[in-house]
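Risk register update: the risk that structure generation would not scale has been downgraded. Supporting records follow, first protein first.
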Amino acid sequence: MLDIKAVRQDPEAVAQALGKRGFRFDVARFTELDARRKQADVQSQSLLAERKSASKQIGALIGQGMSVDDAKAQVNETLEKIAAQIDQLTADAKSVQAELEELLLSVPNIPDAEVPEGASEDDNVEVSRWGEPRSYAFKVEDHVALGEALGDMDFETAGKITGSRFNVMYGDLARLHRALIQFMLNLHTTEHGYREIYVPYIVNSDSLRGTGQLPKFEEDLFKLEGEHGYYLIPTAEVPVTNVARERIFEDAELGEHGIRFACHTPCFRSEAGSYGRDTRGIIRQHQFEKVELVQLVRPAQSASALESLTGHAEKVLQLLDLPYRKIILCGGDIGFSARKTYDLEVWLPAQDTYREISSCSNFGDYQARRMQARWRNPETGKPELLHTLNGSGLAVGRTLVAIMENYQQADGSIAVPAALQPYMGGTEMLRK
């Protein structure tokens, strides 16, 4: 959520900054609601002062010759009228405040100055490339054909068990999938300073509101039936970041680089807006796995933290020797809560293109304000909002796809990257 004080100070400037996203901020609506809220506050203060003054009038009325009972009755009548007016103003103020909060909850984060202009993913800007796509002396197959030829990828059975956009994996392919998770967790915890965390896969609406999925993106979520209002997590970002909700961290708890969490979870998404896209294979599914990286940092560390977090995700691709490119998302493609995002796109030979495998974002204090996630600044002794960041380190299913396609052999077997062989009991090749 944006800082309402900053919005009040210059709503036109906020509207202009949000224009980089192609988002129209309703300045007139905000100004009207804020004026009504302010008017209710002023009137309430005036009535409180009037009530205080009225309470002192009993003695004056008695001094004018009125009986004690009559004086009390007259003052009480006045106080009751004032109380009724205050109650009505309080109710009006709450209603206006609720409208104001609803409006602000629907407003995305202001993009960083470094975010390029642009309306869609076609306007994203490439920052760098790593590795060279391999050349093949045979016809390249996609991961579906490779997995089915191995007998280890089964979409038909998954369809009977659940439906479309789910899969079943067997044997060495399932083992390779598990090895990727272990490899990523070990790398991030032993080399990059992340603390492993296990979290619930079901969250409440407050958690989703805190990280920005609600109220705008409810259609993308799987909501559970029942009285609790629970949802399946769309990403570990939600439960992990909410560890900091309604909490004040002492400066010493943040350490040198802030708090870093690494978390493996399944993720559940309805993919409401993606019908017809990536229907073949496991590129876009309703259930998939990720190793998520979350950082909670002091505001002064925010910009450098995004660079380091993105570098940690890149290290996974480099150790697996998978060619990729790094891009910065333009204003029209950046996520709702993010102020700056790098995407990492891995090379997929069967598609002859780069595809997203990690999205690393800095949210500034946007999520922290929603969650009231704070740290105590030792210079002032006062609580201040943290900055939050997260990124995939990596999306496990898409990494599996990249390995299958990049490491395929002429006979349909798949070589196991050297970095993963210790997690596979020394297995060097997947064969039928």
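Supporting record for the second protein:
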Amino acid sequence: MPEAASGFNLDPDGDDFILSRTDHDGVTAKISLTAADILALTRSALAIRERSLSQRQPAGGAVEAVLATPVTEVELNRELLGDNILLTMISADGNRLTFALPSTLAVDVAGRIADLSEGQASSPPPRQ
């Protein structure tokens, strides 16, 4: 993965990964992570992001701060073992995030997207 502006880098190391961070003095700290560690780190980072955004909410609750990633491509597949629709969203930089939607929820989401796309504003816009 290319090095991020933060000084963090994540590189494959056999079946594992090496997470490294270089500070302003050029000193690099490294930690070995398994694939399971990467998943746990991802979940933790998302939870911290949500907590950080919730602390930035304006008083009154009329507007909600969100961090949105522009999506350039979407893939839809049916889960092989189960009744879920797999919705994969892909950003401009190639990052992919897949959600498993139960079929009934997928139908509801499709209907709501169609309503929004057609400009139907029968209810107030959602908080953002």
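The radius of gyration is 19 Å. On this basis the risk owner (M.S.) recommends closing the item.
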